[in-house]
Amino acid sequence: MDRLSEMEAFVSVVEQGGFTNAASKMGISKSAISKHVSGLETRLGVRLLNRTTRRVSPTELGLSYYDRAITILADARAADEMITAMQDIPKGALRISAPVDLGNNQLSRAVSAFLQKYPDVSVNMTLDDTYVELIADGFDMAIRIGQLVDSSLRARKLSETSTRFIASQQYLDLNGTPQTIDDLANHHLLHYSNLSTGNSWNIVAPSGEERHIRAVGRLTVNNGGSLLKAAESSLGIARLPLFIIEDAMTEGRVVPILENLPEQRLSIHAIYPAGKFIQPTLRAFIDFLVEYFRET
Q: Which of the listed residues 86, 114, 131 is the one where a domain comes to its end?
């Protein structure tokens, strides 16, 4: 006999207070309910229900079994719902948050391609370099670059980028080109304020040692594009992800420095609320982003 059917019949009897009401609730005969419960008690070798002519109530062991059974049945329903949802065609609205520069570059093109593929989906994308409160602010998903700090959320890695130290050639001609990490102390540093490391740059030396350099300089701002423009204007040295500065380097508006240092990678993640399963539209979007970043 099906264990889940036995369990469901037993739970229904406890919750409905009797076999007749349980049968009505489940849409099966009273004799079928009684057969399920009797089969369960026989298999377990215990009495789970006290039966009288006036009422039915769980025994002490029955109460313990009931507590576990409702959890198991809820998990089983969630599993069924997950499979059903995964077969649905993506549709409806998604609200996502992303860093400004990533959004203006790769992500906007990815969203456009996704919407062309799924015409029944709409996307409300907020570009903001501050870390939003995903659930409190009503977002389905956010994109984070760098180290993840909120363990209450689920995350899926989309891609990686690397950082470079850059400055304009004019700045270097006037101030000299730093050759070592220690040389940075004698330069104007342009700092990205949303780093999880606060007011310092964590830099890996050629020896593999991690160095911490205080990076409060002439300009601190919470947007990478603004820091790039400041570097182009010869205000100092910036450390930025490659996807922000690669065009400027190619065009000679800034030049890379300290290229002898080990490459430091930054992971790009999609984060979303934890739960038993992910809604099909969001799942489709994240799957699409993984493939998009892999190809581009």
A: 86
DSSP H stretches of helix in 206-241: 224-232
**Which residues are CB-neighbours of 35 under 8 A, at least 6 positions away?**
none
229-243 average pLDDT score? 93
Integer Cα distance of 165 and 228 in angstroms: 11
Q: How many Å apart are CA 267 and CA 133, to the nearest integer?
A: 20
The CATH number that applies at residue 127 is 3.40.190.10
The rounded distance, in Å, linking the Cα atoms of 18 and 15 is: 8
Burial of 263 (0-12, 13-18, 19+ CB in 10 A): exposed
pLDDT (0 to 100) of residue 154: 86
Q: Of 62, 86, 110, which closes a domain?
A: 86
Q: Domain span at residue 40?
A: 3-86
Assess whether pLDDT exceeds 60 at residue 276: no
Token output for 215:
């990076």
Contact (Cβ atoms closer than 8 angstroms) between residue 259 and residue 163: no
Whole-structure pTM value? 0.63
Six-digit token pair at 164?
């470079």
CATH code of the domain covering residue 7: 1.10.10.10
Angle, vertex CA 29, rays to CA 27 and CA 30, nearest 5: 115
